Amino acid sequence: MTRMRQFSIVSLRDLLVASGPTLLAVITVAVLAYLWVDPAPPRRLTMATGQFNSAYEGFGRQYVAALGRDEIALTLAPSLGSHDNLQRLIDGKADIAFVQSGSTEVGQGAPPRDTTGLVSLGSLFTEPVWLFLREGARVTQLVDLKGKRINLGPEGTGVPRLFRQVLDANGIEPGDLRIGALENTPATMELLAGRIDGLVFSSAPEAPLIQMLLQTPGIKLFNFTQADAYTRRLPFLTHVVLPRGIVDLGRDIPAQDYHLIAPTATLVAREDLHPALVGLLVKSAGEIHGKAGWFQQQGQFPSPKYTEIPVAVEAARYYRDGPPFMQRYMRFWLANLFERLWVVAVALAALLIPLSKIVPPIYVWRVRSRVYRWYGDLRKVEQELEATAPEGRDAAREGLMQRLDEIEESVNHISIPLAYAEELYRLRSHINFVRERVRGTIDQHGKSVGWAG
């Protein structure tokens, strides 16, 4: 093994020493570029959803499953609803949340809520205003609600503020009704027990309570026959139609078309959400909300439209161009790794190109220095010979010859790559040259003097 090292083509030790600082610098810069320029996406997110048995809660579970396939742990944080969700985003208690259109409006004459630092990832679905009434309530127009016991839910749901705007459009003061603030499930129990006259939801039709009430005898749905007028008065609302028989064709439920007014649910995130996760969330939204439904066509949602909060740049790019190129063919984390590595590649190229011109000369200098260092000892022998008076040279030759033998012995043990063997043999010939000078057989120019000591 020793002989193989002595006659190797390249000296690995010298190569490592010469290139070590360069490699260390390259690795350090690459790691810093990888971490600082575009840090890896977090693997945990928090989503503010809604009340128990609400559509927000159901959709939240679907997002947990969708993100779980890409090893993103999504924690669901139950809430009262849209207004509560918006406040949690503003306070930094949630990363993403469902927010209803119109939630940024505080009230008539008041400035909108400050949503600085929040971005929209797109609208997801319409949330019709469902006004369920007992059949005995005898309500055909909203003005007939005066004096009735109507549950609007807690303030954090957004429904109280929304329905007050609807009442105001009809010239009805909130004090004209006996308004309740129960959450959805207990309010439904109160309605079925006959202790209240009606309740208001604003939810997607997938909510279990909506599905149940639409099929419950003795409970009727209010028909907003003036829906178009509401959308003109309240621009964040849209007019949707619940088609006849959509709930149960066989039993013809409902038995007529119902006109409803509907805000739009939006997926809102904090502005500092990692850009890669924005695309992943929009992709998940397409899988969850992109199918045809009671109030939407195939592919209508998710959409960058119908949102009051500015759409994130990455989300707008996804809607325009589709998923990033690598994510079309690779899993999320692998694609994200390659998308981030281009920064590292640029950093490496910026360092390797100039450093590649420095390492070879350093390597050559280290290898040749093993040979050249002995020329200093040879020069000392010659200088000592020249400094000795002619009459004393015979006595000095023995010591100088011994030193030359020691130098030659050391040189014979030098490990040097074959590519530089010529330097080694040249050194050995020069040792012999000095030895002959010491013997007195040649002069300093290599010419024979005709005698030997």
From TrEMBL:
This protein's UniProt keywords: Membrane, Transmembrane, Transmembrane helix
Protein name, entry field: ABC transporter substrate-binding protein
Membrane found in the keyword field: yes
PANTHER family found in the cross-reference section: SLL1037 PROTEIN
InterPro entries the UniProt entry points to: TRAP_TAXI (IPR011852)
Spans through the membrane: 12-37, 341-365
UniProt xrefs under Pfam families: NMT1_3
Gene3D superfamilies: Periplasmic binding protein-like II
